[in-house]
From TrEMBL:
It is found in: Secreted, Cell wall. Keywords: Cell wall, Cell wall biogenesis/degradation, Glycosidase, Hydrolase, Secreted, Signal. The keyword Cytoplasm does not apply. Belongs to the glycosyl hydrolase 28 family. This is endo-polygalacturonase. Pfam families: Glyco_hydro_28. GO terms for molecular function: polygalacturonase activity. It comes from the Eukaryota. The active site is at H272. InterPro entries: Glyco_hydro_28, PbH1.
């Protein structure tokens, strides 16, 4: 998929199939002669497929619909018109954001269903209006929304700039603004974009099935509030891989209704780490299962592998694996918190809780800046159970004392070498 999107990008710029192949080969990295030949054949196939796709596809460029691309005048209407025409096309369609130009956008919704497949090719920059008054007073939660589009591919190597500084100054945790939001989109592919300075959440996947997200670079200052990297909720069969996320909040937030999520080869930091939750806020029911997180580097994050649930909620978070994680100066490397409270008022202790079970923490190594490297803070009425700790080695940064662990109401087991020893003295 990445090769095809990259090939399409070069062909859209007027390059030949041979030029596209050369560009893709240079982008693919090294390897031996056999690997090079194999890669050459694979990438040539991608370029030929892209050429065929371009021949058969209808092209809808923003510039053809009156876009100025100067980053100052509003191009929202041009994007909406290009999308509308592409969505009505009976041929596979490409909506093109041309390279080397900046297109200023206010709130916009790109809706389906569409008559054929669409590739949204972002080669230039989409930038949010810096004026908050451009947003609908009744709904400031979204910037670019894609809704009800099946078989959509988004890529191109361009940039989506949320222009979030003005939003961070007026941050409200309970009125989150989402930069690029996908709703009820099945068989979705998002590959090769740069996301910077979102108003709050950078990429949100909601009520979707069959999603692949890869090769995203997501960046915002570590002090920017609520700028989660990738947010997944009420979605199934989602894959996230090969992304670099540096933000002021969760690198990934995994919330209610997420099932069968695979996350691999992620680099995270600064930020709040990888979080399942929060779940069960407002006495709600939450259900999360089948979460597999593998091969992650975390640098200077507030948390590493985290599950957080509010008191008073119900439901479950189960069948979860965090494995092959490297921690570098992480404050809370391993943490389950069933008493999570992020409220201006103290949270009242309640009897019910989201049940946490069958969680594996495996091959997690590195350094922590806090003494409690492992925290299992579980509910008295609904203890965590089937918590497995395997091959853990977490030490204090600079060797300043030994790391420790704390447990409350957790039923755990260990295998291999586990440092620090879980819950000594509890």
């Amino acid at each position: 998929m990445a090769s095809l999107l990259l090939a399409v990008t070069f062909l859209l710029s007027g390059a030949s199939v041979v030029d596209a192949e050369a560009a893709i080969m240079s982008n693919s990295g090294g390897g031996g002669a056999g690997a090079t030949l194999t890669s050459r054949g694979r990438f040539l196939q991608a370029a030929v497929a892209a050429s065929t796709m371009m021949t058969q596809s209808a092209l809808f460029s923003l510039d053809s619909y009156g876009a100025r691309g100067d980053g100052e005048r509003d191009d929202t209407h041009a994007l909406a018109q290009a999308w509308s025409a592409a969505c009505a096309s009976r041929r596979p369609a490409v909506v093109l954001v041309p390279a080397d130009r900046s297109y200023l956008l206010k709130q916009v919704t790109l809706s389906g269903p569409c008559k054929s497949s669409i590739t949204f090719m972002v080669k230039g920059t989409l930038v949010a209006s810096p004026d908050r008054s451009s947003w609908n007073e009744n709904n400031r939660r979204h910037w670019i929304v894609v809704r009800g589009v099946d078989g959509l591919a988004v890529g191109g190597g361009g940039t989506i700039d949320g222009n979030g500084e003005v939003w961070w100054k007026n941050s409200c945790k309970f009125n989150r603004a989402l930069a690029l939001s996908f709703h009820t989109c099945n068989n979705l592919r998002v590959d090769g974009l740069k996301m910077v300075n979102s108003q709050q959440i950078h990429v949100s996947v909601e009520d979707c099935t069959g999603v692949q997200v890869a090769h995203l670079s997501i960046t915002a200052p570590g002090t920017s509030p609520n700028t989660d990297g990738i947010h997944v909720t009420r979605s199934r069969n989602v894959q996230v891989r090969d992304c670099i996320i540096k933000t002021g909040d969760d690198c990934m937030s995994i919330e209610d209704g997420t099932h069968d999520l695979h996350v691999t080869r992620l680099v995270c930091g600064p930020g709040h780490g990888i979080s399942i939750g929060s779940l069960g806020d407002g006495d709600s029911r939450a259900e999360v299962s089948g979460i597999f997180v593998d091969t992650v580097q975390l640098h200077g994050t507030t948390n590493g592998a985290r599950i957080k649930t509010w008191q008073g909620g119900s439901g479950y978070a189960k069948n979860i694996v965090f494995q092959n994680m490297a921690m570098d100066g992480v404050k809370n490397p391993i943490i389950i918190d069933q008493s999570y409270c992020d409220s201006s008022k103290p949270c009242k202790a309640q009897g019910s809780a989201v049940e946490v079970s069958n969680v594996v923490f495996k091959n997690i190594r590195g350094t922590t800046i806090s003494k409690d490297a492992i925290t299992l803070n579980c509910s008295k009425n609904h203890p965590c159970f089937d918590i497995a700790l395997q091959d853990i080695n977490l030490t204090m940064v600079g060797g300043h004392g030994g790391a420790a662990s704390t447990c409350q109401n957790a039923k755990w087991r260990e295998s291999g070498t586990v440092i620090p020893q879980p819950c000594i003295g509890n």
